[in-house]
Amino acid sequence: MFRSIINFRKERVSGSSWLVFFVSIIVLLLVAVSSAFIGVVYIPPIQVTKIFLSQIPLIGHFFSSGIGAEHYQEIIVYLREPHILGAVIIGAVLGVGGAVIQSIFKNPITEPYMVGISSGAALGAVLSIALGLTILGIYTLQFLAFIFSALIVGIIYFFSLRSGRVPIVYMLLTGIAVSVFVSSLVAFMLYNSPSLASTSEVFFWLMGSVETITWVELAPVAVISVASMVILSLYSRELDTIQLGEDYARTVGVRVEMLKIVGLVLVTISVSAVVSISGLIGFVGLVVPHISRLIHGGSNRKVIPSSALFGAIFLVLAYDISRLVIEPKVVPIGIITGMIGVPFFVYLLRRLAGGYYAD
Asked: Can you say how many angstroms the Cα of residue 275 is from the centroid of all Cα atoms in its chain?
């Protein structure tokens, strides 16, 4: 499905890819740092800079004395920094998840949510809020969203098994059907309980937001996410091979079914983890991998890490827009990514109609 991209851009991007990686890292750092200057409460840039410098190990105490009002540091360290870092991690995970899912399914218009991750997480979160569960304290909602997300993906995989194999098209269609069914259950719960539907926590979770992320919630998710992305990157060669056809992949020694399981499990774990703290943020996993392929070509050795970088940049910028578009309100970030993603999706369909992704 991506063979034309691999062939067309192979020569063109080989020399400039490392420069693009370097520039992308610099841009991500600049975007993340500059994002801390944006917020409802105005903090002088010099104060923000001093707060950043004061957190540097060993030399930070040299800058802490010059910080102004005490609440400035609390706002930066305990509010803006976890939100920004959360956006970085969430964007990276969704970008990598999209790249891997598109490679496994050999379909350029798939993303992690199409295999039931989003609908399962939504069901778990809404159940947690509706029943007022506090079994695990602040982690209850995140835990149930994670568990239900993984459970729905497992059900989809089980129903897709045919003679020990999982036909990709069958799993995709099963995923769409099960996701619609689960989403209908969530909609029924909200319809049947108007007070639940009007709850701000439910609204922001279904729309996607990083405004409620704290360091306590982010720490375990960051560990899971980074570990999953690193492991997925180790399978880049196998993912390249499977794009050329499962039969060909088997002839060169790739354990195709095991690769599907490993890829789906790692994507499910990482995406479920980030969705559990941010809610449903759409189109990142669809848009970002294509931007990466247009720049780097079709090799997952470059597409996976660049999707992480572009996903992080994309979501931090979307977060900035969400805070600026209707000040002092913060628009749910999923609305912003949807407004950007839908036009790109339409553009992508036009390219598909023109045969751009044809073998």
From this structure: 8
Query: CA 1 to CA 288: how far, in whole Å?
Result: 17
Per the CB < 8 A criterion, the answer to whether 299 and 322 are in contact is: no
Encoded amino acid at 337, one letter = T
C-alpha neighbours within 13 Å on the C-beta side of residue 276: 29
In CATH terms, the fold of domain 3-353 is ABC transporter involved in vitamin B12 uptake, BtuC (1.10.3470)
Whole-angstrom Cα distance, residue 182 to residue 153?
Answer: 11
pLDDT for position 247: 85
Closest among 298, 311, 308 to 14, alpha carbons compared: 298
Give which of 135, 169, 108 is closest to 350, Cα–Cα: 108
Query: What is d(CA 190, CA 36) in angstroms, rounded to the nearest whole number?
Result: 35
| Residue the block writes with tokens 């209707």 | 326
Residue pair 35/320 in contact (Cβ under 8 Å)? The answer is yes
Dist CA 100 CA 238 (whole Å): 11
Residue 242 in contact with residue 270, Cβ under 8 Å?
Answer: no
Q: Which of 31, 28, 38 is closest to 211 using CA atoms? A: 38
Distance CA 343, CA 170 (A): 28
- Cβ neighbours of residue 199 under 8 Å, at least 6 residues apart? 129
Cis bond leading into 328, ω under 30°?
yes
pTM, two decimals, is 0.89
Q: What is the largest CA-CA distance in the chain?
A: 68
Q: What is the pLDDT of residues 222-250, one digit of tens each?
A: 999 999 999 999 999 999 998 888 888 88
